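EI: anyone free to look at a 141-residue chain?
SC: sure, send it
EI:
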Amino acid sequence: MRKTTGLLSVLVLGAAVAGPVASAHAAPATASAASACHRLVVKANSSNNKALSADNRHSYKKAIGHNKATQKYTVQAKGACRHARHAAEIRRALDGARDGVESAEHHNRRAYAEHDSRAGRAAAHAERNAKARLRIALHYS
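SC: here you go
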């Protein structure tokens, strides 16, 4: 009587059961370009909102981090949206938002380093302008 057959069949059965379950939880292989574009614009908008919230709490160092993330997402969204239906409008809005976020990051650095509340207000103003541009990009994406 062989004792390894039972162990081998359990391993084979376990691999057969684990295979479909693992693939069922995997992300879909292809995502449409439009959804990728919209998802990245949503992430940029969310990150900008977090930066604006941090500015309102005078947490300038946290706002700098959120500004960097917003810049990253706007650059990625610009690449993902290059074949969108309204690509020119989205690109223009994302460029404007990125410029505003860069300005906000500069003001946040100044506010953090020099304890300058005027720079903090300027950063919040730039982030509100970026928020308006991101809303335009959201509309077209």
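EI: The radius of gyration is 23 Å.
SC: 👍
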